[in-house]
Amino acid sequence: MFKKTDDLNYRWLLFAFILGTLILGVKSYAYFLTNSSSLLSDALESIVNVLAGFIALLAYRFSLRPQDENHPYGHGKVQFLSSGLEAILILIAGIALILKATYHLYQPQEIQHLPLGLLICTIMGAMNFLLGYFLIQRGKQTHSLLLEGNGRHLQADAYTSLALLLGVGITYFTGWVMIDNLCAIVFSFFIIFTGLNLAQKSLAGIMDEQDSALIKNLSTQINSKRKFDWIDLHNFRIIKYGQQFHIDCHLTIPWFYTIEQGHETMEEFHQVIKEILPNTEELFVHMDPCTPRSCPSCLFKQCPKRQQNFVQQIHWNADNIVRNQKHHL
Fold first, then answer.
1. Within this chain, do residues 168 and 249 fall inside the same structural domain, yes or no?
2. pLDDT at 239 over 80
3. Full domain range(s) for residue 36
4. Backbone dihedral region of 242: left (phi > 0), alpha (psi from -120 to 50 degrees) or beta?
5. Would you say residue 318 lies in a domain?
């Protein structure tokens, strides 16, 4: 059973796949109409978009399966595998384009109907850009790398289309067919770069690489909602499973709190994290007792056990909360 957010994300991916299939058909028509290598590169990129869109649909649906005995953390990691496969498809398309355009440098083909081909390329590129923009925004809102990656790929396709228009335009006004093939080769390297970048992000997700931007944003918001008895936060780690987060950390609280008071403090901390990151699937907080060294930075002004005067608050940030050590002045 899909959650409301998951259902909407799936509909966005389905819409992207359907529109991508339509764009592929139109771009393929533009290539067969013109015989332009640049427009062929545009069509090849759209083939990758459609294949990647289909894979994304399957991967997203699979990633929403609940936890089971064999997958205690859920199935979200499949989203990173999907992105990796998409990266491979992008690389194959880029290499294929280099080979074809290089061949046409020595065996040039007559290019026809370029004005119509340019118009088609412009309209399809604009559609890809707009769709990519909405997918990126939706991906950021729901912390879905799959949606955001799909959107960035579509926008990269749109930028490539815009650049290729330049090459096709020069060919049209000068009649130099070589320019068309050279532009196709140049921008095939851009396609390959896109594939390598996506592969790096996929590998980072699989290897649980630290997302510094996410931790920076999270630490800023935790600071703004910080309670007086949250004395210290450290050893903070986030593991991504698709768009779901698994978090564990150490929170220092007053050493004299009862088990009930400690539990209430943990619940408050849980609630704040859930407000900041609604997609947090699991949150494990280890309670650490404060020590006399904690007093100079402790915000608990009415602490009955204080042994040193308050000096200043230690501001939590992306650098210090990930360290496996308590903070002291």
1. no
2. yes
3. 4-206
4. left
5. no
The rounded distance, in Å, linking the Cα atoms of 312 and 186 is: 56
Start-to-end CA distance of the chain, whole Å, equals 50
* pLDDT band with cut points at 50, 70 and 90 for residue 105: confident
**Beta bridge pairs of residue 246:** 239, 282
Domain annotation covers residue 33: yes
Distance (Å, whole) CA 214 – CA 171:
45
Contact yes or no for 204/294 (Cβ under 8 A): no
- Quick one: 189 and 269 in the same domain? no
> Please, what is the average pLDDT of the chain?
81
Residues in the chain: 329
- In total, how many domains does the chain have? 2
- Within 10 Å of residue 317's Cβ, how many Cβ atoms? 13
Q: Which phi and psi (to 5°) does residue 152 adopt?
A: -65, -35
Structure confidence by residue, pLDDT tens digits, 144-171? 767 777 787 787 777 767 766 777 777 7
